[in-house]
């Protein structure tokens, strides 16, 4: 499985965010995207997820599975995309029905992120860091080998970040792929890096428009539906 981006450009509101971005990521590999606030990290994640069309260039995901590219991608967006009134278990059960269930059950996924005790708690009662860990558990328990992660370490304490790193490394060791936008070191060995810098201003452009990293409110659960879980 290989994801390739060729000469990607992004404009929002007619203004240039980035241009001529290219990279290639294979199974078992990670790409870490860095850059200042508003440099386009969230927009690039949205493009890869198929939720934002590029202004130029293209993205391909070649695979030997009988699944559409969108059915291979799991998204951990900047916002958690959890329904506050539902319990942790109900949120994860709904995600498994929509996205397809992996071999990792809900209980096992919650144990992996240290939230076994919170299974029956409404999400609205969780801290920001706990909600982030539920989002990670959602990736673990759904059948999506490509993980797109926007600030995965946001709101996490140092112990939880170490746990996040261990789970990401386990996913890579199992042949998965990770593309993560982050301000914080993630501790991934041998990860590729891509730094988004402000582009030069075209003659016809106004000053570059630096999007807010929180602008992708629509990217809460931007996955293609998959088979229902048994």
TrEMBL record:
It comes from the Bacteria. The keyword Membrane applies. GO terms for molecular function: ATP binding; ATP hydrolysis activity; transmembrane transporter activity. Keywords: ATP-binding, Cytochrome c-type biogenesis, Membrane, Nucleotide-binding, Translocase, Transport. The keyword Translocase applies. Pfam families: ABC_tran. GO terms for biological process: cytochrome complex assembly. Residues 3-228 form the ABC transporter domain. Belongs to the ABC transporter superfamily. NCBIfam families: ccmA. This is Heme exporter protein A. It comes from Camelimonas lactis.
């Amino acid at each position: 499985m290989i994801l390739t981006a060729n000469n990607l450009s992004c404009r929002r509101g007619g203004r240039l965010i980035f241009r001529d971005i290219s990279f290639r990521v294979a199974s078992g590999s990670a790409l870490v995207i860095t850059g200042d606030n508003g440099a386009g990290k969230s927009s690039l994640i949205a493009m890869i997820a198929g939720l934002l069309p590029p202004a130029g260039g293209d993205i391909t995901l070649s695979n030997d599975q009988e699944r559409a590219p969108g059915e291979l991608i799991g998204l951990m967006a900047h916002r958690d995309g959890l329904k506050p009134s539902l319990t942790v278990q109900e949120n994860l059960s709904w995600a498994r029905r929509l996205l397809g269930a992996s071999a990792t059950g809900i209980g096992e996924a919650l144990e992996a992120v240290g939230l076994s005790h919170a299974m029956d708690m409404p999400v609205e009662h969780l801290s920001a860091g706990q909600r982030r860990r539920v989002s990670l558990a959602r990736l673990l328990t759904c059948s999506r080998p490509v993980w797109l992660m926007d600030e995965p370490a946001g709101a996490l304490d140092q112990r939880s970040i170490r746990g996040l790193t261990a789970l990401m490394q386990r996913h890579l060791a199992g042949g998965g792929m990770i593309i993560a936008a982050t301000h914080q070191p993630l501790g991934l060995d041998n990860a590729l890096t891509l730094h988004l810098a402000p582009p030069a201003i075209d003659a016809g452009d106004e000053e570059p428009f630096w999007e807010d990293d929180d602008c992708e409110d629509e990217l809460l659960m931007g996955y293609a539906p998959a088979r229902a879980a048994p």
